[in-house]
């Protein structure tokens, strides 16, 4: 959304009914779940079997993951430009089609090159999905319910990860079957999205074009701290997202079932990150950021140091999942506070930099693991999170209180 589009709500079709809001929120939650939790992050769940099937070393596996993050970066820029021109429904449906196609390519991949292409295509769906959903909520949901809708939709990542885990567990070594199931899920959600997300762009959006998509200035005061913080968070989180299950299997010798349950736990507890708004309202964004980044570092270090202890692995995965989703929520709030006139641009910038950090972090962590050990690679990622916690926002906090709600 842009400042211009927010100021021209008279051009919109009007707020949704409660029924329409329910279907939009459900479809948005599901689209984020299949794009982020399945099409993008399920790759890390299957790294052990991919390494065996396609004879991949850690560096190559990390490079493939990096490509998915890079494709996300390109996709989110394109989607941000196209959404005002074509409307939320068209671009959101495109995200679902891309996720469906990408997961199907992975399922049918005959070699590592096609596998990498499928991973890149599937990963790009996340960048395509986020802008149209934010646009649809901004234009079709009344202000009083907008924040709640955004919060619920944002929790889709954890839900998708939690869904991908049991499917992987049930299919065991039949990984191609799992990815066919993922493709079917993506297709079904795409149909739901087409039926539930409001579609038409506003007249002002079409006339405004690109000049209303970009903020002025591009990098206002305080944005540098947010950029560094987001990059550190992305780079540090790449260890668990890409090699989390692999380190439990290869280093900790955990069983297929135990390591997959760790992944399910990660996703399930990620849903708890939806409470980020209340947390930031009570303790402030700066204090919350420092605390949760240290929590992310601790969970990453635990996975490295106690890989063979099942209970510790499960707890560490759960803590990581909650911390990761909470940090994305804090970056969302951080971005809107810096880009007060064009809040969506602030959110887009923050998430773009997270993906850039992950794109750089995944191959670097894989290279460290190859040169030294997986434990040292994960501890390096944890150190990045510790350094990232030192980057704090430089603005007056919102009034703190029990009933705080972040601004749209």
Defining traits:
408 residues; globular; disordered N terminus
Protein topology:
Elements: H1 3-6, H2 18-40, H3 42-45, H4 47-54, H5 58-86, H6 88-108, H7 112-140, H8 143-154, H9 156-171, H10 175-196, H11 203-208, H12 223-250, H13 256-270, H14 276-283, H15 285-305, H16 310-338, H17 343-371, H18 374-388
Helix pairs in contact: 2-6, 2-7, 2-8, 2-9, 2-10, 5-6, 5-7, 5-17, 6-7, 6-10, 7-8, 9-10, 9-13, 12-13, 12-15, 12-16, 12-17, 12-18, 13-16, 14-15, 15-16, 15-18, 16-17, 17-18
What do you see in this structure?
By secondary structure, the chain is mainly α. Helix content is 78%, strand content 0%. The protein contains 18 helices and no strands. It has helices at 3-6, 18-40, 42-45, 47-54, 58-86, 88-108, 112-140, 143-154, 156-171, 175-196, 203-208, 223-250, 256-270, 276-283, 285-305, 310-338, 343-371, 374-388. Helix 12 (223-250) packs parallel to helix 15. The radius of gyration is 20 Å and the shape is globular. Mean pLDDT is 82; it is low at 1-13, 204-211 and 399-408.
